[in-house]
């Protein structure tokens, strides 16, 4: 990059000293102020400056370099992304043939819960750790009314907020004159399908261990979300005086049997409480860890997914999915990013070439161009 | 100078309105004139100066009131209130905080400034002065001076109030003052003590004076004062003497070269002329302000349309019942019942208040910068002293039609002027001597010892220095010296002259009829030693010729005209002998007029008119006024930049014309159109003739020229250049014709002709006509930006009239101007460099603000399509608030203060593309697993980096400040994000940003996406730069052309 380092010369219109009248601003309460600016480098615009000159000669190599950096990155991302195994299954049950079609119109409190089983086959084995997601479509978790309908201080274990939740939680703030814990639309609509995964081999179903811890952000689990404090660790007692969210079958202190995953610090709950950016989203549900180095986490083969179908989405034309995915250094499957990098890199490179040609051609030919009119 | 009265607002907090009318009576030294007279004490205000605006008590309400009178502030206040009252997507803090910030900063700044003013006031008010009481000096604080006190002022002290000059340490009763801090004129002015009190130059003597002064009530004009002093001596008739501005010592002026003076206070405190002049700062609106308003309006329109679109779409979307209220997201009871105010407008408008402050800072930078610069289209300039040096040189003279000229060695080009020059005795000896005596006597030049005074025009060979308000006079006196007549000075009303025979002649100076621009001549009445009474008069030919014997004119006129053609300033000299009787009458009339308190000017003018009649023409002089260095280049540069330069002068047409040629206002190829008394004629048919001429020119310039194709600038370069010359009398004929019907018609045609001409010369202009012309041009269609340059009092009117007024430094005009420059050539730099820079900066500033705010709201807008038009904010409230205050404001501020690049700007073009890509990319590649706040943070990060780096790309002039603010802003953003997300803030209702930023950065794909998106966003910009540089290189030969064209663009 051509560089030109210069200190601006003293402007000839500004003699260094103040003129005879310049400094004579005496008397009169500043009535007659000298209007001459101070003779400082800043005020006289004489700060030394670096003046980069972006010319074709300096920018075009930059184009090449950018192209050369971006294309390998893009290829790397693309290959990595392609190596990621991902399997997605829609279990909403819209199609009459789907096993879950019978559960399509369940309501929140249907007892016994509707269950269905979907069989599927994995063509390729999933080598590394597998993440199990549930995905919802056309679910506006980012609706303004929805996003703000929570009380973070209640979720942080504040006892006064527990019994007197924020107004933002309306209309899910109180039920039958009792405060709802956790209050608000987000909590109220928590995803409550249960998914279980079985490996089917010779008609025997082997349950695959799904780990439910470690799916939420560490900071959320340990700092942002806290159970209310009080005497003892009995959550039932701590949540005394509150009532469960309207749509929940059981109160918050019965979400899980393990005490460190119960109440507000239940990880499924925490994950749900992080509202999604777009109406089609996926949320981490479970982890499947690789057991041994010899065997892949999920072998290729037949699997069946047992669903306890509690969550109604048909009423708002929604969809439910279950996604299995491995991850890499760059996260989940994302072919677009790689393609974008390759495209941008190629365009850069291509433009660099084209411009270089134009630059050379015109630069040499047109030096003797006629002066117009 | 009557403009002050109308153009300014005066503070009137002392002396009630009714007292202003009429006169005031001041009793000198508070000694009642006689016991019999009832001593009615008039109440005058004390000598305290109050320039501060606030007191401790009224600061808060007054300052807030003033701040909220600004549209932008008020607008944000309203929004803030709406947010407080109505349920809106964002908290009131979002708009409240920037508002609070700006208001606080401004209040602190104004408070500090006012504190400084208080301090300065105190300094002035508490300074010590000496007052004579009971024949003793008493030291007092300045603010305690009362009207009527006798004040003693020593050399180099500033006068504490307006004083009537009674006596000075010098015996002739004069003193020198400099008024540099009043009107910027740094030369020394002589003031005269009241004639009868000059002897009272000790404390005791001055205390014995019993007198009253009657004078007008205070008025702001520094150069006007009428009053009368009546002195009572025991057993004698009271003596009355007239008082004029030469007897008045103004507060703020400084005593120089005089040991001490005594004066009696007549105006004190806020009634001094200085204080009365203090308030007025011309209220010229700047392009900056206009463009900000335009920007705000456009921005508002965009927001409103955005809000409308969103609201419409929202209802469309909600018409689907499962969209409107799905089971998981029910409305509250209140929401169902009330129609919700669409708060969308509000949250997107996040503070562009700060914009105005940046512009203000920028403004302060270019002096006081209330006024715009770049797009000046018309430049009006004075000739004498502005285009030319106004340092005169005597060239030649003619006596009775015979030419006298120095023998200048043509070869060397310099004159050999040792001793009296040879001249050719063509005219009668007596006439010559008369002429030279006239030159020696008819002036107001004074002699000072060279070492006494500095900063004046020194005479190289003689240790005496001539000082005069007019350089012409000095040139004439020096000219006379060359021919053997030396002016030796004025002693006790006697003018001493050394003639060719080295004899000293004495003339008693009886009266000086001072020069004024209306009369355009001055006269003296002297008595020779032999008792003859002579009146010498010199002045412009137009004002002398009608007053002399007609048969004498012809031979001199030839010379005058020829000299004028050569660009010299010509003056004619005439004389007349007065009989004692005539003189007595004149003397009486003059004294009467001088005594008059009312209409003194008119009365004086009438006496002058009567006196200066029936004279005999002796000859004429020619004085050269050299062109200022580089004025020709400057005019060419201004022309090349597409500005039209008009010269408005009071000079003769021929003189002005040759100057115009010399400074290349007119080129040899320029076709001149004349609308002067010469072509129009003096006959009664002149109106018809004028009509014909106008029609003819109009036809030539407008109708015959084929409609220019393409841009205007092209038509200029292609077609013939026209120059127009018009003189004062013709102008008044055009502007005020006798038949009213055609008046506007003439004016219109004239204006059209003028606008077609590249250069216009208006000669023989009265000061008001100058202003008239500026006003006329200013009010044409498209209201072009006008600029006036001038130096003298006669230019003040046009300087005040034009959008941009420029005065010459240290001259009278500077006081009334927006900018002051020392020389005409600096105009080039001012207009083309500073003006251009200013324009580049402002243009970029406004564009950039537009750009960054649009960048800011566009993702927000697009997000609405994904969140059911529910007005969910994409960014966290803190980001929303900080975006304009902290993250992106400083780089543009530094840019607008420091940029000196010349690159064109192109910001908005790529904006839409970029944001769409932005969006598509993001929603495609990252989002499904991110929460909405993470997503918003990613968008915001890309936004901040893009917007800042874009500015970095545009910056051509990197000082350390640019580096600091650009990289500093980005670093601050990152730091702030960590900080903001790192703590559970107890005062927040929602902890939505908790660890969002940090978590975002743990994802590699987010990094990759952010880098890619920033690059894509900036790619069009980079590409544009490269293309431009290629283009520039390929058109290197055309570069010069382009350079000019760029200026053309600017001037539109």
From TrEMBL, chain A:
GO terms for cellular component: apical plasma membrane; endoplasmic reticulum; Golgi apparatus; transport vesicle membrane. Its main location: membrane. InterPro entries: CDC50/LEM3_fam (IPR005045). It holds the Pfam family CDC50. Keywords: Cell membrane, Cytoplasmic vesicle, Disulfide bond, Glycoprotein, Golgi apparatus, Lipid transport, Membrane, Transmembrane, Transmembrane helix, Transport. The keyword Cytoplasm does not apply. The keyword Transmembrane applies. This is Cell cycle control protein.
TrEMBL record, chain B:
It is found in: Cell membrane; Early endosome; Endoplasmic reticulum membrane; Membrane. The active site is at residue 382. PROSITE patterns: ATPASE_E1_E2. It is a multi-pass membrane protein. Pfam families: Cation_ATPase, E1-E2_ATPase, PhoLip_ATPase_C, PhoLip_ATPase_N. It catalyses: ATP + H2O + phospholipidSide 1 = ADP + phosphate + phospholipidSide 2; a 1,2-diacyl-sn-glycero-3-phosphoethanolamine(out) + ATP + H2O = a 1,2-diacyl-sn-glycero-3-phosphoethanolamine(in) + ADP + phosphate + H(+); a 1,2-diacyl-sn-glycero-3-phospho-L-serine(out) + ATP + H2O = a 1,2-diacyl-sn-glycero-3-phospho-L-serine(in) + ADP + phosphate + H(+). The chain crosses the membrane at residues 933-952, 964-987, 1007-1027. SUPFAM superfamilies: Calcium ATPase, transduction domain A, Calcium ATPase, transmembrane domain M, HAD-like, Metal cation-transporting ATPase, ATP-binding domain N. Its EC number is 7.6.2.1. Residues 814-900, 928-1029 form the P-type ATPase C-terminal domain. GO terms for cellular component: early endosome; endoplasmic reticulum membrane; plasma membrane; recycling endosome. Keywords: ATP-binding, Cell membrane, Coiled coil, Endoplasmic reticulum, Endosome, Lipid transport, Magnesium, Membrane, Metal-binding, Nucleotide-binding, Phosphoprotein, Translocase, Transmembrane, Transmembrane helix, Transport. One of its GO terms (molecular function) is magnesium ion binding. This is Phospholipid-transporting ATPase. GO terms for biological process: phospholipid translocation. Residues 41-95 form the P-type ATPase N-terminal domain. Belongs to the cation transport ATPase (P-type) (TC 3.A.3) family. Type IV subfamily. It comes from Chrysolophus pictus (Golden pheasant).
